Amino acid sequence: VRGQMIDRSGAEWLEIAMRLLPIAVAAGLGAALIASSGNGQTPDNQIRPESAALVKQGEVALSAGQFQAADDALETALVIDPRNRDALHALARVAMKQKLYGQAIRFTNKALALEPNDVNALALQGDAMVQLGASARAQQNLAKVRQLCGGNSCAQATTLAAVIARGPAVAQKATTPATKQN
């Protein structure tokens, strides 16, 4: 009789454990997700210093017209710290200088995936969209930039509005009358 009691209570314990196990697993996963949700975004002031230094080096190379050197430094900055939005912004500017507007949009999309309210990325993306002829989408970016600036006119909104008003650079060259040669 005593052996049957042990088996019976063991079976009951197993049944209880099987019923509670999914609840315990769900609670554990929920706690893990809540605990790790704050780890997704790295504030700009927590970007690794090596990455920030490479961004500055890349921006110097970009301003000197050395696109390959700029690209190399900025890509390395992203390898060191993939959450460095300044590196993504600078890579988008390098792509814009090389008229690689689709690539510029991809870089700004990555920056916006890290921070959806990134005014610099929205403005750069809007500029690239204008160059590709997508002025309506650029207008949407401008509206969001203005909203994020709080109704105040910020430099990004002013610049993007001017780019939209001017239109794509390719269209400007096409409308410039050619000089006739005799």
What's this entry about, in short?
Pfam families: TPR_19. The protein is an all-alpha fold and 182 residues long.
What's the CATH class label of the domain at 103-168? Mainly Alpha
**Which structural class fits the helix and strand makeup?**
mainly alpha
CATH architecture of the domain at 103-168: Alpha Horseshoe
Identify low-pLDDT runs: 35-41
CATH topology of the domain at 103-168: Serine Threonine Protein Phosphatase 5, Tetratricopeptide repeat
Note the gap between the termini. Answer: 119 Å
Q: In percent, how much strand structure appears in the residues?
A: under 5%
Round the mean pLDDT to the nearest integer and report it. 82
H and E string: HHHHHHHHH
- How many extended strands? 0
Radius of gyration: 27 Å
Tally of DSSP helical segments:
9
Largest sheet: none
Characterize the overall form: elongated
Describe this structure in words.
It is a single chain. Among the domains are: 46-98; 103-168, Serine Threonine Protein Phosphatase 5, Tetratricopeptide repeat. The protein has nine helices and no strands. Helix content is 75%, strand content 0%. By secondary structure, it is mainly alpha-helical. It is elongated and about 80 Å long.
Question: Topology, please?
Answer:
Layout: H1 2-36, H2 49-63, H3 67-80, H4 85-97, H5 101-114, H6 119-131, H7 135-148, H8 155-166, H9 169-175
